[in-house]
Amino acid sequence: MNIFKSYFWYHKSQRNGIFILILLIVIFQFIIVFVDFYSEEKVNIDTPKVIAFHHQIDSLSKITLENSRLKIFPFNPNYITDYKGAQLGMSLVEIDKLLAFRKTGEFINSRKEFQKVTTISDALLNTISPYFKFPDWVVERNQNMQLSTSRDTRLFAKKSKYILTSTDINLAVKEDLKTINGIGEKLSERIIKYRSKLQGFSSLNQLYEVWGLDTEVVDKLLLVFKVINLPNIKKINVNTVSFRELLKNPYLDYELCKKIFEYKEEVAELQDISELKNIIDFPLELYDRIVLYLVAE
Fold first, then answer.
1. Domain shared by 124 and 61, yes or no
2. Model-level pTM?
3. What is the pLDDT at residue 255?
C-alpha cells in the first residue's frame, strides 16, 4: 500500500490545480451542450464574383467534355480503314464488307450505297453521313439523278426496233451506244476510243471521264449497260518501266510521272505498289484507278 500511496498524495496547491481543471472541463461541457453556435445569417451566393466563378467552372467543364469527344472531319467513305471504322462505331463485319467491296474496283457514291454495302444501322448512318465528302462530280451527278428519278426510264433509250448486241459496256458496239438519247456517231466513237485507251472499263464511273459526255447522258447509259466482265489489263512493273511507258497510264500526267521516278530514286525500289501513297501530293482519289495498270515486283 505504501507503494501506491505516493501516487495519490497531493499537497494543497496541487489539489487546487486539479479542482480548477475539473471546473473548467465542466464549464466547457456546459457551453458545448447548451450554447447554440448556429448562425442564421445566410451567405449570398448571387454576388457577381460567385456567379463569374461558376461560369468559369462551367466553361472549363465544357472544354474538357469537348476535348474528350471524338472529332470527325469530312472524309471520303471509300477510304475508311479498320482504325477509322472502329472510331466511327462500325463493327468489324461492317468494315470487312466495305473493304471487300472496294477490292472489286467499285466506288461508293452516296450515303444510300454506303448503307447498302456495309449494312450499318440507320442511327449510325445518320451520325456519320453528314461528314461524307464525295468528289464534286459525284455530288453533281447525284443531284442530277435526284431530279430525273421521276422520269420514265423508257425515255432514256430511243424508240427503235434495234436489238442490243450486248449490255456489257466492254462489248457494246457503236450502234448499241447510239440507242441512248444524247449519244450520236461522234460520242459513241469517243466512248469506244476511251475504252480502248483504258484497256476496258473496270468501273462504270469511268464513263464520267469521257470528254464531252454529259453526266445526264452517262446516267442514261448506266440504266442500260453494266460491267459484266472485268477487262484483262496488262500491268507494268513500276520498278522497271520507262518514263515514256509510264506516261501512257491514262491517269498519270507528266508531273506525276516525274514525282514517281523521283520517289523511286529515293527508295531504290518499291516493295509494294501501295508505297505510291507516300509520294507528296499523290492524288489518293485516283489511286485505285492508277494501280489498275501498275504492279511492284
1. yes
2. 0.47
3. 92
